[in-house]
User: What shape does this take?
Amino acid sequence: MKIAFIGLGNMGGGMAANLAKAGHEVHAFDLAEEAIARAQENGCQTYTSVRDAVQGAEAVVSMLPNGKIVEQVYTNDVIGHAPVSALLLDCSTIDVATARKVEDAARAAGYEMVDAPVSGGIAAANGGTLTFMVGGSDAAFAKAEPILARMGKAVIHAGASGAGQAAKICNNMILGATMIATCEAFALAEKLGLDLQTFYDISSKASGQSWSMTSYCPVPGVGPQSPADNGYQGGFAAALMLKDLKLAMEAAAGAGARVPMGQRAEELYEAFAADGNGGVDFSGIIKTL
Assistant: This one.
């Protein structure tokens, strides 16, 4: 299948590489020369514009920084330039309203489109073990699933247009809050004289267990390999966690939902990022405790 891939950053680069590895003809575009070079090394054909990349594509996949850019790229360079038969898949994490707006515009022009944000981080993007939360019609999901499956371990239909984004921001609100609670617990355990490996051995098998504890432990040398073992570099940047928490707070305000834990997590990550830690993995917030 001929697939255009727009956005080859930390996440998109690995995703595009996995599509090429699976035998797809990947036509890739990014503004960064380094990302373009990496895509070429990974078997992708590269282009100097989005419009060139989407010419003749059977599917268009995007992984972009924010809703404004997603809307601009699809409105100006994808819709009306990719074949109407091409399936459009946006894997960016953006606000629900913009996702629905872009998908409405695509459908009005005759395209099928899904919003398919991901969970799993850079390692999962490189390893092809992402989880995709997909919003869109049943027909569009059926077409999207085999493409997404080449980049992930789970592809779940969350519901209609925008449902993938809703699931993603709710999921990451849980992640942000539980990571802070996990960091607090390790800091308290240490102050109470507990050996941190012993505490992990207990909590990871008890009611305190969570993904933040057992899959992404914020303490170096404890649990499976995580960014904590690499000086909190790589993984999922605190600035991106803050972005997702802000999207969750925006959605909560619009829906009239009360989310005090999510709000407090946003405040803590905002302070952490403002202190020069935006590029640090989000589990590095343990250093502030």
